[in-house]
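for ur thesis appendix - Vitamin B12-dependent ribonucleotide reductase. copy paste whatever u need, i formatted it the way the template wanted (i think)
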Amino acid sequence: MTETTSGPARGSRAKGSKASKGLRIERIHTTPGVHPYDEVEWASRDVVMTNWRDGSVNFEQRGVEFPDFWSVNAVNIVTSKYFRGAVGSPTRESSLKQLIDRVVKTYRKSGEENGYFASPADAEIFEHELAYALLHQVFSFNSPVWFNVGTQQPQQVSACFILSVDDSMESILDWYKEEGMIFKGGSGAGLNLSRIRSSKELLSSGGNASGPVSFMRGADASAGTIKSGGATRRAAKMVVLDVDHPDVEAFIETKVKEEEKVRALRDAGFDMDLGGDDITSVQYQNANNSVRVNDEFMKAVEGGSKFGLRGRMTGEVIEEIDAKGLFRKMAEAAWACADPGIQYDDTINHWHTSPESGRITASNPCSEYMHLDNSSCNLASLNLLKFLRDDDLGNQSFDAERFAKVVELVITAMDISICFADFPTEKIGETTRAYRQLGIGYANLGALLMATGHAYDSDGGRALAGAITSLMTGTSYRRSAELAAVVGPYDGYARNADAHKRVMKQHSDANGSAVRMDDLDTPVWAAATEAWQDVLRLGEKNGFRNAQASVLAPTGTIGLMMDCDTTGVEPDLALVKFKKLVGGGSMQIVNNTVPKALKRLGYQPEQIEAIVAHIADHGNVLDAPALKAEHYEVFDCAMGARSISAMGHVRMMAAAQPFLSGAISKTVNVPETATVEEIEDVYFQGWKLGLKALAIYRDNCKVGQPLSAKKKEEEKKAEPVAEKKVVEYRPVRKRLPKGRPGITTSFTVGGAEGYMTANSYPDDGLGEVFLKMSKQGSTLAGMMDAFSIAVSVGLQYGVPLETYVSKFTNMRFEPAGMTDDPDVRMAQSIVDYIFRRLALDFLPFETRSALGIHSVEERTRHLETGSYEPSDDEVDVEGLAQSAPRQTESVNESTPAAKIVEEAAAPAPKQAHTNAELVEMQLGINADAPLCFSCGTKMQRAGSCYLCEGCGSTSGCS
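the 3d part is after this line
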């Protein structure tokens, strides 16, 4: 991944001026007279994405153009998700340039039309700086921008929506309709149902009301039917109920009862796995549920007193309950099925900039956007690792100056987007244009902390996270005040001016009282302090353009687009990652942040190499050579031998929350062994630490698993019965006959010459390989001799050739480079060449094609016909059996009779396709994340949602 400019940013902060003059935009990264596109090397890539469940191709577009430093995964996701136009048509986008131009030029045009820029030259600088930052993965807009901006369809830019519903059938039916339209557009929505009278209250006709839980059932069925964005994934929604609502206990228990139903149906033989045929019979599964608690209730819990549930129509207490008992039920439900989450109402509204326009009653599905009913928020996130600088002496610093400049650029663009944006309902459009809510945030915090030698759960890590968050929000509101001087404050500002300025003072005071820890965070705090001083001064003079500025979103798909190692505010998933390679194939690598962290901690190069090698072998740092025990915590991850504690997650959220307009999308993971009391403590401490919202997820608390019930049943049948005699099976070596056919190939790789002799069984594929390098007696020649013997013995014991090919192709070391073989023009090492050549000589087309290995003839055929596969009269029938694993002699004179028994079919070796699956294999666990409905791979958590690393799909609202 190519880093952005590491030196000081050019130019100074753009200043707001009179409305007639607009903004003066100064350069950050770009050079006058040079377009950002001309400063990078472009490469042509082929994007072919398959469904791992059945091997079918679910997306294919060849010859797309991207910068050479973009990863395979980022290229695949942007091409499949964000390029517009029918695949295969001339109108289909085929270059990142087209995608960025479509968006950036739309923003520039709207900015010019609405008086944002002082001159055309400033507009051009804005365009080039925005293009540079997107091109170099410095930041990204949320997905709806890439989907819609610059197209013929409605230009929806917001991903997060909040609706409202009143106590009338007309309002409830409008809720169903509005929510459905938002789901259809690929976004998510949240709302509070507390205005609907409870089932314990009477209707005007004299009968009992249905209550909000009953109406939730209809909305849930609607969401499950419509799906999201016309795709096959579930819609994203949030349902909130106030803790003083008389139906709150039924609300808490909705999902617990459904989980019990799932267990009963599963035990009866129904397919109740995630995505299973029968899971649709379960209710309330399409929403995240949260209870909105207030300080009165939490103090009652703390003091062990009674708490009153109030009627919706009169506001009078109609029932008193034990507060601690109700709090316990919330924790028990979260322990059992991860719902409900909790939202802290008084804290949320204490930081509300527009209280005269209404209270904040709900959030979007992922809990980061919290503002007025019938409103929306467009998001953008910065890649924090792009601002980490390393000087020639190995010293690190966070480039606070350049970070602030990019924040100002992005906030300006985000505000411009509201000028031309379309909205799913008229009410949402009116509110959003009147309050102009924005949600700037960041990704890669976990990677940044590790790279700088900070433990995620440490005072130093929290100080750096808090400083960056404070600088981001302070800079955003400073730019908002400058924009107010140019194009005016938001329409609702005059009514809410005192409250807005009060909240700005609260942010500034929190910044001033924050603890400074070390040489990394202290300069960032200083820059944030200056920004907040400007906010107070300019806000008093100009007002503010935006009622809200910042949130911390999940950054799922856009995090993959930016090649981020970690999403949002999350820590790293694990130390070893799964990486896709250009041309097919994949490899496991130790996180690039690990060596940076070790260097920051003072380790020498040879020590770093040994520690990284240990991590590659074991997946963790325990007992790594030369690594001090006090440094273990730096490498703690979300999963693994040293996973971060629940309170470690909560404390990190608390470090960032005082510096955010909105909230934080994050689920606090606790181990399967966690108790209900521990979950109670997490919810209680979240209130004490000033969080706005919190959700718990206990490992394996969900019944639905990615493995289907039928497969589980088959596995049970395959397991040996306890009474059966246990027999140990061992492979039997099958030696080659004295006379055997062979192929001798001469080759050169990167200037190194060698010879390979490959001998095969007369009827059963490759069985022996000899490798000779031209310089006899050299270390390389000796290693090649030993390596060829080891491979030959493995082949004779039945190891399939394709296993060796998948393991050793793409292995990179010197000598590497050009070869003299027309079928394999480039090799990353001698081993890479050898096994590509062996695959071409001994594996059938279907097997090696799946591994991305083709001959020059096949590649030529693909260019001419679009297919690598030969026609029927070209198929090598004799070679089709060579890829099948050769069975060892099961019946021969040396095989004991006791071994001749019926053997259960062995399961196919498990293969990782994403980091989540790789972690499962390393740790021997089976996380109950869902399978991606698009490509079949295991998803992983990203904030309160799930993210598919294979194709970029999310289960959330972005």
